[in-house]
Amino acid sequence: MPKWQYEKGAKKIKRVSKEGYEYVFSEGGMAFPDYLDRPSRTMITGEGGSTPSRFKHVVKTRSGRYRRLIPIELERLNMFPDNHTLHAEVSDGKRAFLMGNALVCGVVEAIGKSLYRAIYHQEPLSSHPIEMQRKTQPSLELSLFGNDEPLLVNRPNKTATLDPTKRLLVGMVKPDNQEYFLELSDKKIYYTGKTKSFPSTIALNKLFYFMPYIKGKGVRDLYLIRVARIGTKAEVHSRSRDNDPRLIFELEYLQSLPDWHPITLNLFYTYADTVLGKVMAL
Fold first, then answer.
1. Which of 11, 151, 212, 279 could form a disulfide with 181 if both were Cys (CB 3.0 to 4.6 A apart)?
2. Do 30 and 54 touch, CB atoms closer than 8 A?
3. DSSP characters for 82-138?
């Protein structure tokens, strides 16, 4: 606490420049802890970490204890969607750095709207407002450039040999996730229903392939299950407050069938447990 009080407090320090001149470095005091009923100070990239600092935010709780701000609070101060910086390989300190390096979304949005009104003399109607659900797999919107012709892209060569005897899990994709799986990309994340409803008869050490099932279409795309772990729905839907544990599949795209293949799901139309050869006709 004394270190924090010193960093936040007013001070005058005698210093000597490289040229040998003496001068007094001074700085005024800052609120400690930070006010809860006033606008927040701007974050900087040094917001994270445990070292006491003049610029880091500290608040006092009702219990009388002091604490730092957690990543989701920093995101909300910058008006980002909840858990915008959440990633398995990003530490809390790095998340604080990212928010300190960012701008306040709402301010940028307000400036953009003001410029639009000044230029076009009408209210702006954004097709992608900041409050919308953030896509976990952003894609380039070609219509922004007036070119509707499809891009020719090179996909990485897949060297995996398909084994028809390996276990295949077919998972139903809910309506709010269908667009995500209809857009092909090399990596996807699939979350199951809550763990208590996941089929206990499927041995996790035997999970190998995965095909998403789209209602009314069937299955088409084949993925390799790289990682099966416990996670939450928020990893795909960042604004979701559903923190119940679910089984998470980290997927790698392998190939697609020429067309959609209808398949009958069992187990209350949620999951089908089969082998690759039955679906892919290998």
1. 212
2. yes
3. TTTT--TT--HHHHHHHHHTS--HHHHHHHHHHHHHHHHSS----SS-TTSPPPSS-
| Domains assigned to the chain | 2-100 (3.90.120), 167-280 (2.30.130)
Task: Give the list of residues 6+ apart from residue 79 with CB closer than 8 angstroms, or none.
Answer: 104, 105, 106, 107, 130
| Rounded Cα distance, 246 and 69, in Å | 27
Please state, in angstroms and as integers, the Cα–Cα distance from residue 227 to each residue in 76, 191, 219, following that order: 31, 12, 21
pTM score: 0.44
Q: Would you call 49 helix, strand, or coil by DSSP?
A: coil
Q: What is the pLDDT of residues 191-208, one digit of tens each?
A: 877 655 555 555 666 778
238 with 83: CB under 8 angstroms?
yes
